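REVIEWER CHECKLIST
Item 1: Sequence provided? yes
Item 2: Single chain? yes
Item 3: Sequence as submitted:
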Amino acid sequence: MKKKMLSKYSLVTNTTIGEKSHYSKLMTSALRSYSCFTLILFMLLSCAKIEGPGGSSAITGNLSGRSYSYSNGSNGEQEITNITIPNGNNIEDGEYVLLNTPNGGTLYYIWFKWDNGLAPNPNLSGRTPIQVSFSFTQNNTTVAQNMSNAILDIAGEDFTVEVNNDIVIISNIQSGEVTDAEEFTQNITVDISNQGNDYTTEGATFTEGPIVDNRVYLIYGNDAFYSEDTRTDAEGNYQFRNLNRGNYTVFAYSIDTLHPDEEPYAVRHSVIINERKEVVQAPGIFIYQ
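Item 4: Structure as written out by the authors:
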């Protein structure tokens, strides 16, 4: 009996030792796999391109362009219209004046309505009405002020207005060639004191060369906004330092010579830094000022 019990005990002990040994091997293998995975992940992250500061690379470039001089009057000008207003008893109910804006903007008509008048709104097709209410008893300066208030209320985004006694001075906010105002009245008079004209480079003086002390901007990767900026030196050169490897965009703003009243647009170039301690020359940026 003792022999059998010992044999059974020995069998159990040997089996337990074998299971522990197998478990130990599995744990060792798992630890090795985890260590390899961690090492590979670390290597991948170390090689990944993360744009931005903290690196040892740089981007250099040059900004040049054409700078216009408008001393010869080639810059665009706003149209200024003077409208002389009579006393209320000299204005016919329903009379109107056509008023315009440049570059395909909103077209208006200013129509005069007595307080108790029966004349209907002219409802001119394609035009926005500006109604000026007045009475027979009002003098010319009061009607002129009524007109100024009505224009600013309806068309304040397109015009500035001043009143000088009985004269209403209407200035287009946007410069450019515009069809002159026209009166369809008996006693209201219209005079153009300044003719609107378009911006043009024809006949303008200009210089081409480096653009000095001008801002250049840098975008990291696919960011929506720029992350840093710098100014050009006396030769139009600029540099962004201490950058990591990755993709960047450099840009500067230029005017649109065909639509000078619109917002400037960005002239952009893509730049890639592939190595540490690399100095990348960006393509030249050319702008108009």
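Item 5: Key structural point noted by reviewer: Helices lie at 2-47, 140-155.
Item 6: Recommendation: ____
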